[in-house]
């Protein structure tokens, strides 16, 4: 049974390792033939490595990307059945158009991997007026998931995998009194809030999916990986990070993608679990079940965030 019911706190079942394997790699991905996987932000970094691995194992992979030319170039570097779909997560209009296109093309979707994201950007807005990081990382994926969910519901083994970050622990809260950073904006706090929202969304989605028993929601984080996501770090921090990361604590994108890939494909995964590296401070290592912050498990806050997200995006989910 994949669904675990309530995830108001990390139970022993949710925190258990799915098996005794300590060196899970892409070689452990089961055959994905016949499965359709939609992956946001899949033209570079973690998304690219995730898509490449799934395609290599037989999945039909959709690269949902803002720049289709870059998407086509990325697809050409992969082996297998890979197509490109335009998707701009900073625009609800684009999200609705992409969802409509995908629903017209596919009767079922087996994997939705909410991978795309921005990090520590200067203060800016999406097309709909949302703070860029919260709007892209959380609200964009919330809307896309809600619009596509009917294609994942009641599909045996279907999963929604949302990529969070260890950075969700650095801000400590969802700032409901200033969600869009209008009164006070700190780029790291805004990033942390968006990544905490990813987790709270996953846990609440799992609670709502559990009674149906087939589709599950899972989260993952890559640890510290050398990707383009760090390009918006403030300059002094960026220089120090980029100089130290490759040798001290970061891992390459193909290793950073392993928690997402395990969450998406390991047969023993439970709904509501969270995957990350097993090394010091979860910065690098083998993909295992990890715990998120205490606040992320607050059911009342999860439900409040869900309600606010529905109001802001005007997207409701086909779930009771």
Highest CATH level, the class: Alpha Beta
* CATH homologous superfamily designation: NAD(P)-binding Rossmann-like Domain
Q: Could you say which structural class the secondary elements and strand pairing correspond to? A: alpha/beta
- Note the beta-strand portion: 5-15%
- Biggest sheet architecture: 8 strands, mixed
Compact overview of the structure:
The chain is of the alpha/beta class. The protein has helices at 12-15, 45-56, 68-76, 92-105, 132-148, 187-209, 235-248, 253-256, 258-265, 299-313, and strands at residues 36-40, 60-65, 81-86, 111-114, 159-163, 216-220, 274-277, 287-289. This is Short-chain dehydrogenase.
SSE layout and pairing:
Blueprint: H1 12-15, E1 36-40, H2 45-56, E2 60-65, H3 68-76, E3 81-86, H4 92-105, E4 111-114, H5 132-148, E5 159-163, H6 187-209, E6 216-220, H7 235-248, H8 253-256, H9 258-265, E7 274-277, E8 287-289, H10 299-313
Parallel strand pairs: 1-2, 1-4, 2-3, 4-5, 5-6, 6-7
Antiparallel strand pairs: 7-8
Structural key phrases:
320 residues; alpha/beta; Rossmann fold; 12% strand; globular; disordered N terminus
């Amino acid at each position: 049974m994949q669904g675990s019911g309530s995830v108001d706190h990390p139970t022993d079942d949710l925190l258990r390792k799915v098996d005794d394997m300590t060196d899970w790699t892409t070689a452990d991905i089961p055959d994905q033939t016949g499965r359709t996987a939609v992956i946001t932000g899949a033209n570079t970094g973690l998304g690219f490595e995730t898509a490449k691995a799934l395609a290599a194992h037989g999945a039909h992979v959709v690269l949902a990307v803002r720049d289709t030319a870059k998407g086509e170039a990325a697809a050409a570097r992969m082996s297998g059945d890979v197509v490109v779909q335009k998707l701009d997560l900073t625009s609800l209009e684009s999200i609705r158009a992409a969802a409509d296109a995908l629903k017209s093309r596919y009767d079922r979707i087996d994997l939705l991997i909410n991978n795309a994201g921005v990090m520590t950007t200067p203060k800016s807005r999406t097309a709909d007026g949302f703070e860029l990081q919260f709007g892209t990382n959380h609200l964009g994926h919330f809307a896309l998931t809600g619009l596509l969910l009917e294609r994942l519901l009641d599909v045996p083994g279907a999963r929604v995998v949302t990529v969070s970050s260890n950075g969700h622990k650095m801000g400590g809260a969802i700032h409901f009194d200033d969600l869009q950073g209008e009164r006070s904006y700190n780029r790291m706090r805004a990033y942390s809030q968006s990544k905490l929202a990813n987790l709270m969304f996953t846990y609440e989605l799992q609670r709502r999916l559990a009674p149906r028993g087939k589709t599950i929601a899972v989260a993952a984080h890559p640890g510290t990986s050398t990707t383009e996501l760090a390009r918006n770090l403030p300059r002094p921090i960026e220089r120090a990070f980029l100089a130290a990361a490759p040798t001290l604590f970061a891992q390459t994108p193909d290793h950073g993608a392993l928690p997402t890939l395990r969450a998406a494909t390991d047969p023993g995964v439970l709904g509501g679990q969270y995957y990350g590296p097993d090394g010091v401070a979860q910065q690098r290592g083998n993909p295992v079940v990890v715990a998120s912050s205490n606040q992320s498990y607050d059911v009342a806050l999860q439900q409040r965030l869900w309600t606010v997200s529905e109001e802001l995006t005007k997207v409701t989910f086909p779930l009771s």
